[in-house]
Automatic annotation (TrEMBL):
PROSITE patterns: AA_TRANSFER_CLASS_5. Coiled coil: none annotated. Residues 26-395 form the Aminotransferase class V domain. Signal peptide: none annotated. It catalyses: (sulfur carrier)-H + L-cysteine = (sulfur carrier)-SH + L-alanine. This is Cysteine desulfurase. The keyword Transferase applies. Transmembrane segments: none annotated. It comes from Xylanibacter rodentium.
Length: 406
């Protein structure tokens, strides 16, 4: 049943009809986290009410039911990104934990002092700081793909960053500040030509368009549930089985072992080797429902709707006096970052908030990108499937009104 998009889906998200400061809420902070549809909330409540038991360990009825839901969610995620096998789907707490897992295990096994990782200038801190921790611990080196002023990575320069010490490339699929959709197919192709594996940070792509990890051919792909209508506290690490098999475990504990004695522990097979401790099995079920919800509407329709909102927003904002837009790449996705005149981003964001408009301000966990742009921060509006052109009109009018106060 294809659902309509925009206005009609708003009833699925009761929070969208609330007011803030006696004004209708205009929620444009979706790149930080999306709102959750009733079907996700109901499914999670139902699991706590009727099923709740710890997974994998129990012989009893409820534990088996909870395990079934948890493992069905793994299959749901597998089909969502078209992985070959559920062995390749590791549940984590989110993108950040997925990246830390790969960085830590990969560096342990495959990197020594002087080895290099290639990142891009538009990475989120979560794809910078874990590498820096390893730089401090092991002396690995970080090389950075630059971008042009439209916010597009320079693929030619990327090619020149490879040396015989390059061990891995790790790049965002979509920038959380610029909305640039990076040409990850090309990045993977070039990296593989050099015999180097690639991790793609999909935190800002999975909410917006169909991802196929097999056709992309990346070696690792990571994302968060909460940015795609699912609950907080659950994320995914996809890894090609041949890579996950070769990586050592990240955390030790229950669930990730086959057998333990004080002399020797045999680790569990994939994906459990990377899932120490009780997983958030209710959240994984919620994530599966969020995927159902997105697929019921249709990823293509979501994508087309959000691209149109993005185009419309750029057009409306461009006409405002003193407007500076950041990120002008072709096919940019669902994120619009801007500054107006010399108004501080925090002042602009705070005054928009008083009009009921929720935007984000600051460096967006991408300080190196701010340095590249020569600014301290931006105001960022970011879209989801439930946003409407009327909301963008309210944003544009709000910005005009606020900027007249300065
Ligand atoms: N990478 C990108 C591109 C992001 O936008 C974010 C979230 N802002 C993250 C990583 C981190 O995601 P999380 O906080 O859910 O771990």
């Amino acid at each position: 049943r294809p659902l309509p998009i925009g206005d009609e889906v708003r009833n699925d998200f009761p929070i969208l009809s609330r007011t803030v400061y006696d004004r209708p809420l205009v929620y444009l902070d979706n790149a930080a986290t999306t709102q959750k549809p009733l079907c996700v909330l109901d499914a999670m409540r139902d699991e706590y009410l009727n099923v709740n038991a710890n997974v994998h360990r129990g012989v009893h009825y409820l534990s088996q039911k909870a395990t079934d839901l948890h493992e069905a969610a793994r299959e749901r995620v597998r089909s969502f990104i078209n992985a070959r096998s559920t062995n390749e789907i590791v549940f984590t707490r989110g993108t950040t934990e997925s990246i830390n897992l790969v960085v830590s295990s990969f560096c342990d096994e495959f990197m020594t002092e002087g080895d290099e990782v290639i990142l891009s200038v538009m990475e989120h801190h979560s794809n910078i700081v874990p590498w820096q921790l390893q730089a401090a611990r092991k002396g690995i080196a970080i090389r950075v793909i630059p971008m042009n002023d439209r916010g597009e990575l320079l693929v030619d320069e990327f090619e020149h960053l490879f040396t015989d010490r390059t061990r891995i490339v790790s790049v965002a699929h979509v920038s959380n500040v610029l909305g640039t959709v990076n040409d990850v197919d090309e990045i993977v192709r070039i990296s593989h030509q050099h015999g180097v594996p690639v991790m793609i940070d999909g935190a800002q792509s999975t909410p917006h368009f169909k991802v196929d990890v097999q056709s992309m051919d990346c070696d690792f792909f990571v994302f968060s549930g909460h940015k795609m209508y699912g609950p907080t506290g659950v994320g995914v690490l996809y890894g090609k089985e041949e890579w996950l098999d070769r990586l050592p475990p990240y955390q030790g504990g229950g669930e990730m072992i086959e057998s333990v004695s004080f002399d020797k522990t045999v680790f569990a097979h994939l994906p459990f080797k990377f899932e120490a401790g009780t997983p958030d099995y209710v959240a994984t079920h919620g994530l599966a429902k969020a995927i159902d919800y997105m697929e019921e509407i249709g990823l293509d329709r979501i994508s087309a709707h959000e691209r149109e909102l993005t185009r419309y927003c750029m057009e409306r904002l461009r006409n405002i006096d003193g407007m500076r837009l950041f990120g002008e790449s072709e096919g940019k996705d669902a994120v619009v970052s801007f500054l107006v005149g010399d108004i501080h981003h925090l002042d602009l964001g705070t005054l928009l908030d008083r009009l009921g408009i929720a935007v984000r301000t600051g460096h967006h966990c991408a300080e190196p990108l701010m340095q590249r742009l020569g600014i301290q921060g931006t105001v960022r509006a970011s879209f989801a499937l439930y946003n409407t052109k009327e909301e963008i009109d309210i944003l544009a009018d709000g910005i005009t009104r606020v900027s007249r106060m300065f």
